[in-house]
Amino acid sequence: MDRPATERAVAELLRALGRDPADPHLAETPRRVADALTELLTGRPFELTTFPNDEGYDELVIATGIPVQSLCEHHLLPFTGVASIGYLPGERILGLSKLARVLESFARDLQVQERLTQQVADWLWDHLAPRGVGVVIEAEHQCMSLRGVRAAGSRTITSALHGLLREDARSRQEFFALTGTAA
């Protein structure tokens, strides 16, 4: 991100909104907005940590209630919620914190919830080689709550499934039941 250009753009936006960026109450706003956007759009690097599945664990591994926040690419307003991410192990199992890290790495971008859900599932499928992957995200979109229809409190639920969680009805049903999502 080009920080000086971002600050200039915010100052221009303030002017376009009829505000004076030199006003003492707004003087630091361009810097603060640039700081906030940098934080919201920059993911932390991580290394995928996997371990041999020596015990042959073959049941679902699911993390639920993972906080997620991103910026809607259509309105530049936040959407926030929770995710459930699970997989059916293959030859390797995953360090559990990595489920949240993968989610965060894709959420720190201008996004739509549908793509975010699919990106997390695809990445885990491609990098972990499990027998199945499932991702469910439930979020409230400020672009829908604060403007337009003003449907405060409404939630959008998206899911993405691969492997056995997509192909096998019993596995899919178990995943959705464990994540609290009606199948």
Report on this model:
The chain is built from seven helices and seven strands. It is of the alpha+beta class. Strands 5-2-3-6-7 form a five-stranded mixed beta sheet, with helices on both faces. It has a two-stranded antiparallel sheet with strand order 1-4. 25% of the residues are buried.
Strand order in the sheet with the most strands: 5-2-3-6-7
Backbone structural class: alpha+beta
Task: Label the overall shape.
Answer: elongated
Low-confidence stretches: none
Query: What sequence of helices (H) and strands (E) makes up the elements?
Result: HHEEEEHEHEHEHH
The average pLDDT value, as a whole number, equals 95
Using brief descriptors, characterize the structure shown.
183 residues; alpha+beta; five-stranded mixed β-sheet; two-stranded antiparallel ribbon; 7 helices; 7 strands; elongated
Summarize the structure.
Helix content is 39%, strand content 27%.
Layout of strands and helices, then pairs:
Layout: H1 3-16, H2 29-40, E1 50-52, E2 61-72, E3 78-88, E4 92-94, H3 97-107, E5 110-111, H4 113-128, E6 132-141, H5 142-145, E7 156-163, H6 164-167, H7 169-178
Parallel strand pairs: 2-5
Antiparallel strand pairs: 1-4, 2-3, 3-6, 6-7
Helix pairs in contact: 1-2, 3-4
